[in-house]
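In the lab's daily routine, each protein ends up as an entry in a very long ledger. A line of letters takes care of the sequence, but it says nothing directly about the fold. The fold becomes a row of whole numbers, each drawn from a learned catalogue of backbone shapes. The protein below has been through that process, and both of its lines are reproduced in full:
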Amino acid sequence: MTGVALAEELLLLAYDDETGRATMPRISLDLGMAAAVLVELALAGRIAYADGNLAVTDPTPTGEPIVDGVLDRMAAEAPHSPASWVQRLRHRLRDRILGDLVDRGVVRDVEETELGFIVVHRYPMVDPTVEQDTRRRLAEALTGGPAPDERTAALATLVAAVRMEPALGLDGDDARDVEKRLAEIAGGAGFSGTVSTEDSVVRPSVSLVVLALGQAVDAALGPRR
């Protein structure tokens, strides 16, 4: 596996570049990042969805430490439902991903003290190229560009599942249409159940995982307001 991980892309979209603070509820982002790591494993052909559960089909490491840590954990445990896995994996995942981004020079860790005793951390942007590429791909997919590839379609579906459309920074007609377009991308990729996995441009094995995880995250967050 090479390139930028989906969980990293999701996190960078959710953080303000200048303040280094998250712009969305913690629970939403944490569930989304857990789902993103699981989607990463599906894209790499390491897990599959069957009989209501996610299970390891190939324990071979991907070469990405955070992703491989999840793969090892899944291989050591019995299969669980997508809803169970995102809850099991979400704790402390954000800190590990932020630490990796700091080590690679994408963001920096700013430690501050509030109210004289509360230690907080901010993560302002250092190297914007990763996030810029993510936003470019999503913008092309959302504004009538070429049909998105598997990774971009999966990322768009996760963005919708965790309800972070405002973080995309679109305006005008594009902003008004973003929720509809995200649903269209998910449908065209077979991620929403509106298109059969056989007719999807995405591998059926990946479609099943993304569909199940999207539903699990959406259910965990409750009705949209």
Residues 61 and 68 are 6 Å apart (CA to CA). The chain is about 55% helix and 10% strand. The chain has a mean pLDDT of 87.
